[in-house]
Write a structure and sequence with these properties.
Sufe protein. Chain: A; 6 helices; about 45% helix; two-stranded antiparallel sheet; mainly alpha; single chain; about 150 residues
């Protein structure tokens, strides 16, 4: 049985953690990372309005953010989302790269924000963006726990 994937995106498949690590390793300044986050956010397809449901809208974020998920074969999870903020869309793109199509077990075991540390992003975020990132990670963990 092949089920249709809701809100497909390139993160985790065409855009991988390894590719992001290579790209971000060339940046010496936060401004370069900031620009790259904006570029990544532009590659995140806009979520259809019918998928921007209140039950997947996260609180604790600086901008409106939606993070939904879908259970796939093999106990893997597909995540999709959107945000009204350019930087938050980029942060969401990095998160999707880290968690897309991972098993529920791996998502429960691993820190969904570890890629942010490896890219040198988390320490540069404002307190409100850090809180939003934690809200995204909590939503990923919740999805993994519910399977």
């Amino acid at each position: 049985m092949n089920q249709a994937v809701l809100a497909p995106h390139p993160f985790g498949s065409l855009i991988t953690a390894g590719e992001l690590l290579r790209k971000f390793s060339t940046f010496q300044h936060w401004e370069d990372r900031y620009r790259q986050l904006i570029m990544l956010g532009k590659q995140l397809p806009t979520l259809d309005e019918n998928l921007k449901r209140p039950d997947i809208e996260l609180s604790g974020c600086e901008n409106r953010v939606w993070l939904g998920w879908q259970h796939l074969e093999g106990n893997r999870l597909h995540f999709y989302g959107d945000s009204e903020g350019r930087i938050v869309r980029g942060l969401l793109a990095v998160l999707l790269t880290a968690v897309e199509c991972q098993s529920a077990h791996a998502l429960r075991r691993d820190d969904p924000l570890a890629l942010f540390d490896r890219l040198g992003l988390r320490q540069q975020l404002s307190a409100s963006r850090s809180a939003g990132l934690e809200a995204l990670a909590a939503a990923v963990r919740c999805a993994a726990e519910s399977t």
